[in-house]
């Protein structure tokens, strides 16, 4: 798990989010409001859902683009749980919350591969299936 997580505010602009992603080489950005995870913004969200629809990067706020509820896991769950969630939700990264619902990290498919290659392989197979 990566414990130091860079987050965005729902009121940040898409340009600001894209600049943060570029500066830190991120493909996904957790969106938090008062410390609570409310969604995840991906580089694909910006390019496909915003740019392709002609939305202004300077005038569109992240909260205008967030759609579905964020998928996450808790810090006391297992690597197998993470792999199962990734497979079920077809995601390569999961925010990790503590018992107070505060974001404490992100676990990625690469993290799984370093810890449990069988779980990572199973997750990748599930992620790669058509939705």
From TrEMBL:
The keyword Transit peptide does not apply. Transmembrane segments: none annotated. The lineage of its organism: Bacteria, Pseudomonadati, Pseudomonadota, Betaproteobacteria, Nitrosomonadales. The keyword Zinc does not apply. Signal peptide: none annotated. Residues 1-57, 66-123 form the CBS domain. Gene3D superfamilies: CBS-domain. This is CBS domain-containing protein. Keywords: CBS domain.
């Amino acid at each position: 798990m990566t414990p130091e997580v860079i987050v965005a505010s729902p009121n940040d602009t898409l340009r600001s989010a894209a600049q943060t992603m570029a500066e830190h080489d991120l493909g996904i950005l957790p969106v938090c409001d008062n410390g609570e995870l409310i969604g995840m913004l991906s580089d694909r969200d910006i390019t496909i859902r915003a740019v392709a629809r002609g939305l202004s990067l300077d005038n569109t706020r992240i909260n205008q683009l967030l759609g579905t509820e964020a998928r996450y896991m808790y810090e006391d769950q297992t690597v197998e749980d993470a792999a199962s969630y990734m497979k079920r939700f077809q995601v390569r990264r999961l925010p990790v919350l503590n018992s107070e619902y505060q974001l404490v990290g992100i676990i990625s498919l690469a993290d799984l591969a370093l810890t449990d290659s069988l779980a990572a392989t199973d997750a990748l197979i599930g992620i790669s299936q058509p939705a």
